[in-house]
TrEMBL record:
Residues 119-222 form the SCP domain. The lineage of its organism: Bacteria, Candidatus Roizmaniibacteriota. Pfam families: CAP. The keyword Transmembrane helix applies. It comes from Candidatus Roizmanbacteria bacterium RIFCSPLOWO2_02_FULL_36_11. Keywords: Membrane, Transmembrane, Transmembrane helix. This is SCP domain-containing protein. The chain crosses the membrane at residues 7-32.
Amino acid sequence: MKNIIRLTGYFVIVLFITILITALFFFAINFFQFSDLAENNFNKIINPTNNIPTTSINKLQPTNISLELDISPKPKTVKKTVPKENTDPWGVAKKIGDHTYTIKLGHDNAMGSPNEIYEALNNYRNQMNKGYLSWDEKLAQYAQKRADYFKSINSTDEHAELNDYLDNRNGFVELSFNKVGENSYYGTPLYGVHVIEWLFASSSEHNSNQLDNSWSHVGIGSNGFSVDIIFGGGKM
């Protein structure tokens, strides 16, 4: 019985040693195969093959560029326009349109107000033995609109807007007069007395208008260098 146990113990020891040797043998084989594979991969990294594409770079050839800069000034011809001297006589109205005149006058320090022009107009009419004109607010409001318009266009309009208002927009009825007339001016500043006695009196047409005995009322507007006088007769 003891011999059987001893044989069994020896057998187990021999079997264990055999298994251990076999395991070491396979481990050694795999280790050397792994080393060869790693070495090959390492060589591939250190010494790459010709599979990597290469790009050829052509050198750019320099180009010569020539720049010319002309800084010499070119002569310019400048024409100087000398305004013609106004040889028209002083204080004489010159007709340049159907109802438009020019006149050579001096100028005052300020433009006369509507009230100043109104007073100068009645004083002048009184000197000429003409009747007194009453102030009418509707005529004055319309005259002021006209004066404002003249200032905006820096001129008069040869009565164009007034004629359109009377003929096409019921102007006679709105102003409440059967007869309406106008003296208008745009130019330099003039006192009220000079507007009446220098300016309008120098033109026979305008002077006849401001002395017309058929007028009974008047309205006046002024703005800047513009003046408008609206006359009314035959009040409705």
